[in-house]
Design goal:
It contains 3 helices and 4 strands. By secondary structure, the protein is α+β, with helices and mostly antiparallel strands.
Length: about 130
């Protein structure tokens, strides 16, 4: 690529527009773009090499992760997970009975909800004056 000059158009991330847009080079240091001006909103900022800045949420997650890693001591042993209790294969499972009770109560609950809901009278658009 040829040497860059003031006023050349390059792509960069605009913080004000929050997207990748065309920018004009405003300042050059050591043969590289230092400051650019967005050609959409005319905001001047440092050249960001077409990279979006990390969101505040991502920065907060990274800080919390680093804090957790700092608090973990290498001498600590991980806790063993408790073993599940043995279940006999011939015994019927209890959740099946609970499901049957739920199925019996659902229609009653729906009937109660229908009784308590206020009845709405349907009217045509002409009657409403729409």
């Amino acid at each position: 690529m040829a040497d860059i000059r003031l006023g050349d158009v390059i792509d960069d991330w605009c913080v004000k527009c929050r997207r990748l847009t065309n920018h004009s080079i405003v300042s050059i240091i050591d043969g590289k773009a230092a400051k650019v001006r967005c050609r959409t909103c005319y905001h001047d900022h440092d050249y960001r090499h077409e990279e979006a800045p990390p969101s505040k949420k991502e920065l907060k997650k990274q800080a919390l992760f680093n804090e957790v890693l700092a608090n973990i001591s290498p001498d600590a042993e991980p806790e063993a997970a408790p073993e599940p209790e043995a279940v006999e294969e011939d015994a019927p499972a209890e959740p099946v009975e609970e499901d049957a009770q739920i199925e019996q109560t659902e229609p009653a609950a729906q009937a109660e909800a229908a009784e308590t809901a206020p009845a709405r009278k349907k009217t045509s658009k002409k009657a409403r004056g729409v």
